[in-house]
Amino acid sequence: MCRMEDILDKYDEPYDESRPVVCLDERPYQLISETRVKIPMKPGQVERYDYEYKREGTCNMFAIFQPDTGYRHIEVTKHRKKEDFARFMKKVVDEIFPQADTLQLVVDNLNIHNPWCFYDVFPPEEARRIVKKLEFHYTPKHGSWLNQVEIEFAVLAQQCLNRRLPDMIITAQEVAIWEKDRNDRKVKIDWRFRTKDARIKLKRLYPS
Q: Is the pTM of this model over 0.90?
């Protein structure tokens, strides 16, 4: 319960540009190509495509979401290894939030969400520089739903990924278009679950 309240309290803190709360997660995505040419839409008829398809392997998506500003960024990668995570976070620290002293990073308990992975990828001095900018806040076991970026992934799946995308290049292009539109509109999440709500709705989980 301590971890849950820690995350919920982070969402309630006033926005601090020097210490922004940043939600991070990743998801696999199945690449699929068509086996036959689609029949384009026309008046009174939707686009039609054959039920057969070809699997083209999978890719990974790293995503961050900043709840206070409504900023998100998604990067499509071939793998979800510690090297990919470390390089993605280096970009987040140096290019996306260069003004921040510390990123309060909300993550689940995946093994690569660990400060030590940076030391396996970068020289010690560089690894230490990045780690000093990150403050890890882990969601409880079976409580990854507390991470707001999961909601962003759900919207991404519904609005952008619910079709057949054949390769990483096209997938990255389509995701970037979706991301830009959401960022331009500064779309935020209407998060209503607070610590006081947890103590009522999840009362059975607290020590008696």
A: no
Query: Using one digit for the tens of pLDDT, what is the confidence trace for 5-41?
Result: 999 999 999 999 999 999 999 999 999 987 766 657 7
What is the C-alpha separation between 21 and 67, in angstroms, rounded? 7
Q: Considering the domain boundaries, does residue 164 fall inside one?
A: yes
What length does the chain have? 208
Residue 47 lies in a domain: no
Handedness of CA 193, 147, 172, 165 (dihedral sign): negative
Helix, strand or coil, per DSSP, at residue 187 = coil
Q: Which residues contact 140 (CB under 8 A, 6 or more apart)?
A: 1, 3, 4, 146
Domain extent for 130:
2-36+53-205
